[in-house]
Specification:
Layout lengths: L1 E3 L18 E10 L5 H9 L5 H14 L6 H6 L13 E2 L2 E6 L3 E7 L3 E12 L2 E15 L2 H31 L1
Length: about 180
Amino acid sequence: MIEKLKIIPEQSLLKKEEQSYHYIDSFQSQYIASEFDIIYLGKSFLSSSPKWVDNLMAIRDKLVGVFGLKTSAQLKAMQDVDNLKFEPGAQLDIFKLYNITENELILGEDDKHLSFRVSLLLDSINDDVNKKRIILTTMVEFKNLFGRLYFIPVKPFHQLIVKETLKEMIINIEKH
């Protein structure tokens, strides 16, 4: 089950930056514990977006490319697909990796109109060794009016994509 949280988890690296962002959402889901690390979680995240998202991204790229914004094709071209490096500064699909700890990845991108960060956080549930949770938090900073206008139609799709991605991640992890 996917649950929307009302706050950013205290243990997230994003918590200290909370005040500088204009939009924040956070979703979590539980899973039966299995042994994997934060890099496995990152790879699962990158490969778990719904297939229909590719069609939306193609439409988005055509629209925003006219305004000189980064397209997903440009960002993907900047990475070495065969050798994803989970280290700060690496390009991972459409995301840049900003920070990595044992339990959290901070991904995102900065553009002319907005900056965003996504936290993938692994967390224990009340010291229950059999259950854990994944928390996906997104924070967006609008840099100008265009950023605010851009995000209006993106927001409902963003929330749907996050929920579907998290759902697919849990399915993949529980198969692992």
